[in-house]
């Protein structure tokens, strides 16, 4: 097992990572204030891994809530249903909520914890690779609104994150690869040594070798924790975490949400960002090639789907731009391990990166 501390003053918390952690009540105990617990999970995760969590919580009064599976349920209605169950169970402010599932469950449940009686403790027990390296760390919680993704939410840091890598054994391969995309992202934006380590361990990671998986998650969480500690509420540096995301969002939206997984689109978006950085003379060709090679070895596509034209990209990216006060900002690379956010790039470099229309 490896443990990492997220340094946020009074809101600091540990992240425990390893195999078999759902069998370790001692990791949970220090973070439980009372006997009363509420578990929020979903219909997919509960039958696969719920027994181990139930055994871990033996002796506690547990309110067990299973949501339907899917991003479509990341709504205020789901939050309200959780709050109703908590009120019915007469849970007080000393109760603790445990979020047990992927990023969707973590975001919904974390938001319920943020607002129930103005905020109660919560613990993240993430079960997808993406949630283990990304969404469970950093304290962003929330739900979607019909007018926009993640538009309703709160910052609410967990008391602890407990990552049992054994849960990944049941994760579909596409979901695994989507998580690996976000792992590669950390190497690209700020840790060249981690990137080189991934070049040596990517196949072992995809095969879920226990030690390699623990190490990859640990180093990813360390990168995210460092960025979050420097910029808890995203006023600056935290935006670097969006490498590949502007292109990626265009792919996700353009193909219809759910067709491409978020991480799959981010993988392709990072390859596009690398090519654009090379166009601008920032990234050396050999480094661009290294970036593309690793993304490809992770089983992710280097190019967007052919049906998305440059015109369509421009339209879709204009939506992102509106959200950012009229200026399109992109995360680009000076080198592997060194990224910058910039709104100042030649339009030619962008055009050369988008799909070329046939002549
Ligand atoms: P997800 O939660 O939808 O999980 C993907 C699928 O895997 C679901 O069907 C889920 O039920 C299933 N699943 C979960 N654990 C499993 C397991 N161990 N075995 C088999 N199946 C399992 O998706 P995700 O990729 O984990 O998270 C995406 C969500 O996270 C999005 O809503 C996104 O907005 C959010 N997110 C939040 C942050 C943040 O900082 N809060 C960061 C990144 C992403
Ligand atoms: Mg992401």
TrEMBL record:
Family annotation (Pfam families): DHQ_synthase, DHQS_C
Gene Ontology BP, a term: aromatic amino acid family biosynthetic process
Residue ranges annotated for the 3-dehydroquinate synthase N-terminal domain, each copy included: 65-177
Reactions accelerated catalytically: 7-phospho-2-dehydro-3-deoxy-D-arabino-heptonate = 3-dehydroquinate + phosphate
UniProt EC number: 4.2.3.4
Keyword Cell cycle: no
Pathway noted in the entry: Metabolic intermediate biosynthesis; chorismate biosynthesis; chorismate from D-erythrose 4-phosphate and phosphoenolpyruvate: step 2/7
Domain called 3-dehydroquinate synthase C-terminal: residue spans: 179-323
Cofactor note (record): Binds 1 divalent metal cation per subunit. Can use either Co(2+) or Zn(2+).
Keywords for the protein's UniProt record, in alphabetical order: Amino-acid biosynthesis, Aromatic amino acid biosynthesis, Cobalt, Cytoplasm, Lyase, Metal-binding, NAD, Nucleotide-binding, Zinc
Amino acids binding Zn(2+): 182, 245, 262
Protein location: Cytoplasm
Gene3D superfamilies, sorted: 3.40.50.1970, Dehydroquinate synthase-like - alpha domain
Listed InterPro entries: Dehydroquinate_synthase, DHQ_synth_AroB, DHQ_synth_fam, DHQS/DOIS_N, DHQS_C
Gene Ontology cellular component annotations, sorted alphabetically: cytoplasm
Names of required cofactors: NAD(+); Co(2+); Zn(2+)
Residues annotated for NAD(+) binding in this entry: 69-74, 103-107, 127-128, 140, 149, 167-170
A GO molecular-function annotation: 3-dehydroquinate synthase activity
Record's function text: Catalyzes the conversion of 3-deoxy-D-arabino-heptulosonate 7-phosphate (DAHP) to dehydroquinate (DHQ).
Annotated family: Belongs to the sugar phosphate cyclases superfamily. Dehydroquinate synthase family.
Protein name per UniProt: 3-dehydroquinate synthase
Organism field: Thioalkalivibrio nitratireducens (strain DSM 14787 / UNIQEM 213 / ALEN2)
